[in-house]
# Entry
Amino acid sequence: MASLPLPRGPVSEVLVQSLAGNFVERLPAWPDGGPGDGSSDASDLADEALSLWVLHELSYRGFTDVDERWEWHPDLLALRWRLEGGLEQRLRKRFPTIERTTDFVADLAGLIAADDGPSLARHLQRHGSREQALELLRQRSIYHLKEADPTAWVVPRLPGGRAKAALVEVQFDEYGTGDPQRLHHDLFARGIVACGLSAEPGQYADEAITEVLEQNNAGSMFGMHRRLRGAALGHFAAFEATSSVPSRQLAQGLARLELPQEIQAYYEEHVEADAVHEQVALRDICGGLVAREPDLAEDVLFGAWTCLDLEARTATALLDRWEVA
# Structure
């Protein structure tokens, strides 16, 4: 377990100081205009994104020297409620109207295929530096060291049938098909250790950009809330459908930069696996869910669009920074 990250503003400061002292005094009665009010101020968003990530992490691996009971402390749950509400509000405000047909799977596939956001993988394949590649690995470690875990929350929230069976089938692959040496997050851990980086979950939270934290927060929020199960599966489908080609590009870029074979192998593993997962995620998981619960169709599209939108924002932020550098 990693240590608590450094605060980025008043909300994370109160939260981190309380958890670091292994006590939680009653948190402030945040007024209107406090955390989760939908503020667009960059410093507020950075503060809130880190705070929500910390709160979510209490339900994953936790933090060194933080009492595990604080996961369910009522004041922390109230703060999480506010922060998740603000995040969801921002995401839904950006979600455009999607023209629908009678073929839901085709609508979902079309939404994903229309994505034309900037590509970090393509940049590193062709032009990126070793330093940029290592920075990307540190940023990605926030998710990849718990890869598949956010989606695992969804399994008990689904009814029986095609969607649940297919999701467990794909998750079984993500968790190494029973072979602990093939666990995807362990493959990533071995890869970054070979690069001289730490495989401690959350180790690089201090340098994680707001966009990366929001990517992680959205995935955790969707998975942890039963009412957002449709968004969780749409998010999952978009991730699987858009990762095979970038994984190939990243593997090639890492080879060009002569980074260790272990990290190349992690991305090579995803080239074929995610190409197979794409069709299962679209047709069996999302299509199966909507066939059983038609009212969730819009949320599935919302989740897919959110995955693409947050990835584009992350890519834009890092590419802009690297251009300046």
Summary: The CA atoms of residues 34 and 311 lie 27 Å apart.
